[in-house]
Design a protein that fits this description.
This protein has 144 residues and is an alpha/beta fold. The protein is built from 3 helices and 9 strands; from the N terminus they run βββββαβαβαββ. The longest helix has 12 residues, at 96-107. The protein has one domain (25-133): Phosphohistidine domain (Glucose Oxidase, domain 1, 3-Layer(bba) Sandwich).
Length: 144
């Protein structure tokens, strides 16, 4: 599926399909979940990150890029288990480690966020308010 702006919103490529609604959180810098996000609260705790102190819980988390750590999947799994996971992940490029956390959660019967791929430059075009994402990857603003 081609990504980009459409007359009705943006089209993202589904990586782990599912529907989601939440307020957008467009990160200004890459983030590692391991050491960057508190697994108990969902707060960004990396002091050098521009959005340190912001919660990712229940948000449509737009990640222009990730900083890899094989433990990021465990942090995401803990966020899911504790009810502090993002509503959806929108990644500039697929991150297999984060996707593994979602897959394991689904295998355990937990509600895991869907994941989509959308180029970082297209993520910046998304609104800052409430968004809806369909299982097919159509991202629509809900408060435009």
């Amino acid at each position: 599926m081609e990504t980009g702006k459409t007359t009705s919103g943006m089209n993202a490529s589904p990586l782990l399909p599912g529907a989601a609604t939440g307020t957008a959180l467009k990160l200004d810098a890459p983030l590692s979940f391991w050491g960057g996000v508190d697994p108990k609260t969902g707060m960004i705790i990396l002091v050098r990150h521009p959005q340190c102190g912001t919660s990712i819980a229940g948000r449509i988390l737009c990640l222009p890029a990730t900083i890899g750590s094989s433990s990021s999947s465990a942090v995401l799994l803990e966020l899911i288990r504790g009810g502090n996971a993002p509503a959806a992940l929108v990644m500039g490029a697929p991150d297999a480690i984060l996707l593994i956390g979602c897959l394991i959660a689904r295998e355990m019967g937990w509600s895991a966020p869907p994941a989509f791929e959308l180029a970082a430059e297209d993520q910046r075009k998304l609104g800052d308010g409430l968004l809806s994402i369909s299982p097919e990857g159509i991202i629509l603003p809900l408060n435009a």
